[in-house]
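Before the break, one more example. Copy the sequence into your notebook; we will annotate it together after we see the structure.
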Amino acid sequence: MSIDTYRNYILASRGEFSVAKNVFVATNCGWISEREGYYMASGRPVVIQDTGISAHLPCGEGLLAVRSAEEAAAAFEEIERDYARHSKRAREIAGEYFDSAKVLGKLLDELGVC
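Here is what the structure looks like once it is written out:
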């Protein structure tokens, strides 16, 4: 698969749903994959099994963390009620939390490199 094929796949998707490995759920470590970041950066809402991520990222619009099948179904219904709002918020979260310049700058700052 080429990068263009992958990008087009994401752009053709309405959003992302991700179930985490049990170790991430059980430890409540806050795991989220780069794939969710790609979806959100493309303005696609994400429904993810809550691994504790809700303690680190804003959830509820654009990024919805769920703990059960019932919560996942409710999250999908919520997104469908106002897809444009969730898409916009997903993009905003990606820009605020996953932008490489911000993340790398903060990391280098914390390491005392710059």
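Helices lie at 3-12, 22-27, 34-41, 69-81, 83-97, 100-110. Strands lie at 16-18, 46-49, 63-66. Try to locate both features in your own notes.
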